[in-house]
Amino acid sequence: MKDRMLTLLLLIIAVLGLRAQSIVGDWEGDLEVQGTTLKIIFHITEEDGIYVSTLDSPNQGAFDIEMDETTYEDGKLVIKNKKMSMETTATYLASEDKITGSFNQGPMKLPLELTRKSKIDTRLPVSNHPIAGSWHTSLDAMGTQLRLIFHIAEEKGDFSSTMDSPDQGAFGIETSETNIDGNKINITAKNMGITLDGTYVPDSNIINARFRQGPLNQKIVLKREAIDKKELKRPQEPKVFDYRMEDVKFTNPAGGHELAGTLTLPLSGNYDKAVVLVSGSGPQDRNEELLGHKPFLVLSDYLTRNGVAVLRYDDRGVGESTGNFESATSMDLAMDAKFAVEYLRSREEMKDVKIGIMGHSEGGLIAPIVADKTALDFIVMLAGPGIDSDELLLEQITAISQASDGDPEEVNFSVESSREVFAFIKENQELSDEDLRSGIEKILRERFQLLSEEDLEEIGDVDAEIASQVKSVSNPWFRYFISFEPEVYLSKLSIPVLAVNGSLDLQVLSKSNLEGIMQNLEKAGNKNFTVKEFEGLNHLFQVSKDGTGSPNEYGALEETFNEEVIAFVTDWILKFDRK
Hints:
The chain has helices at 295-305, 330-346, 362-373, 389-403, 408-427, 433-448, 453-459, 462-473, 476-481, 487-490, 510-523, 563-575; strands at 25-33, 36-47, 50-57, 62-66, 69-73, 76-81, 86-93, 98-105, 108-116, 133-141, 144-155, 158-165, 170-174, 177-181, 184-189, 194-201, 206-213, 216-222, 243-252, 257-266, 273-278, 309-313, 354-360, 378-382, 497-502, 529-534. It is α+β, with helices and mostly antiparallel strands. Strand 11 and strand 12 form a beta hairpin.
């Protein structure tokens, strides 16, 4: 039963839910010391939020030097060895997956850039077992390649394994169980809801397997040979920048963190409109990068070339921005956007400029909140919600399941399970985290009891499945989001509003949400708004090749953002106040 669980796919960011772009791993860089290059390698591990590291200096024949202290918080990394008077202070740039800073020892202070050392794990115990060693495969994740490497170790008949996801910057991920019986293999990572069941084929030296995690259920083949990263074609990504670009930082004093971004300004200096871009859900960098696409880079490039100033920024805890994303709700993120607007207003050249927000998906939810908290001149909602969040998600589950030819009975099971969970969360906002999780688990266990033995066998580890689902719907962001009613803010908007969507958007369905936006703006007495649906476009405003709008296409499509939509939005921004 492929659709047996909660299919919570609103603004999908991490398909596997791995710790994408984690600081954990092996990092190498070069120190230039009096004309000599010394290579250093840091090995960073983490358990229960506590970081530990060792240092290698291969040129000096020194390996596994234990560091006294390793701290990582809000993107800042500090590694110390007091006996050697050594301290490394650096910043992790998640968008580039690199570490930059300085290496200090005594009076010496040297610039240091570390890049991830991603290679086959040579520290596996030597074993003659035919299945021991490193195995490579890739998943088709929303139309893009996601490589995985399983490192299987055998020692005196006992097996263990770790997993790498190099395209997500995650290495050395611990699995919970590794069982091998003859040519049969099973690997489980309970904390991520991952199972791999396979059969080793000696003649071909491959493993035919099935990989499961959440809604992902794929047949894969694991081989000894490494898999090269496929080049993604993104023809809209700009290569020449004929405008001013400025790296900027501004502060959210309420949260006590700093947000970093890029401000682009027309070369002429002659502009009267400025836009703050606000991304969709999940930790996003300033380009809203997803599956190799950079929608905000493409948008900002077009807007700036056509006379609109644009500020785009890394979400809190992402890239060069500090702060904690995991604990943030939509309201918290709205406050970040508010201070982005106020930062622009504080600049002398923006004194007479009309400033607005252009938000994509959850960013479209955030824009009306910001208008309630500070002065805005206009709003652009790109696939923004216009109906209550629980109904939006139920529509989403149904639409995506049907586009994937889901069995009607299975779709109904998923919808009804989700409806019960959503209602429980909405009605029990005052519950403690522990009590909320307990209540959600009770609902899911009762729902799972309705499944057949065949369905339960396909799920595998039911406890891990339930734990994964409980975790996904009990965090602060989801608790706030599921109770959100756009009417509260849309019905108060009197400033110009543009709302656009694609007819094949399966995540924020066009007709119901555009209708909701329009009705609420009419309720507000707003006389200056435009609502438009674009035929054949998906949630990312790409032309759907298969005609369904399925998220499975996102990464496979070369188009990043439909140029007809970009031109329409830009023209509206430039002319809205002439109506």
